[in-house]
Design brief:
Blueprint: H1 3-95, H2 99-113, E1 119-121, H3 132-136, E2 143-144, E3 154-159, E4 162-167, H4 168-187
């Protein structure tokens, strides 16, 4: 081999070694890039799974909260209806009282609120219970009105331009305002 061939051989050998180093370095970088990309994908996948789980948990929490509020609203509505029904039933119970008890109630209203010379308006259903004879017992010169009132029970005291509305509806509404908070406290009390 001549000097020239030796130099060429050496150049080729060095070039081959350099090429192998470049290829090895490129492979190493490629593996590093691949490993880093794989790790990034794995991290992103893991974060996406965590976010999905977190979002699902938050969504579930919100839905449960809404369902809880809906249940409370439903219970509140039911309790309000029960409270309303209790006052409706109370009115029916007063109307259904026996004559003696009902007349005692009307008598107390007359004693407390009637003034001398007032007209007493009754409902048609009370025409057999509340009579002029009944009114004469109060010594207040009360007169039974000729026309019936459009109400379920109780009386209206009238004279001139004014009326005192003592009908069951009005009395129950006033009573309801006084006792509703107490009843609601008991009825709406939440179990802790």
């Amino acid at each position: 081999m001549s000097g020239k061939d030796t130099i060429i051989e050496r150049i080729l050998s060095d070039a081959e070694t350099k090429a192998e180093e470049i290829i090895a370095d490129a492979n190493s970088r490629a593996e590093s890039i691949y490993a880093q990309a794989n790790e990034n994908v794995s991290n992103k996948h893991s974060k996406a799974k965590q976010k999905a789980a977190s979002d699902a948990t938050e969504n579930l929490r919100r839905r449960m909260s809404v369902a809880g509020l809906d249940a409370k609203k439903s219970r509140l509505y039911t309790k309000q209806k029960l409270l309303e029904q209790a006052f409706v039933d109370a009115g029916k119970a007063v109307v259904a009282m026996d004559d003696k008890t009902y007349c005692e109630l009307i008598g107390k209203l007359i004693t407390r609120y009637a003034a001398d010379g007032e007209n007493v308006i009754i409902c048609e259903n009370d025409s057999k219970r509340i009579t002029q004879t009944f009114l004469n017992k109060f010594d207040k010169n009360l007169k039974l009105a000729k026309n019936y009132g459009d109400f379920e029970g109780g009386i209206i005291l009238a004279k001139g331009e004014y009326e005192k509305n003592l009908t069951l509806d009005v009395l129950l509404d006033e009573s309801r305002e006084r006792v509703e908070n107490k009843v609601a406290t008991v009825l709406f009390k939440e179990n802790l």
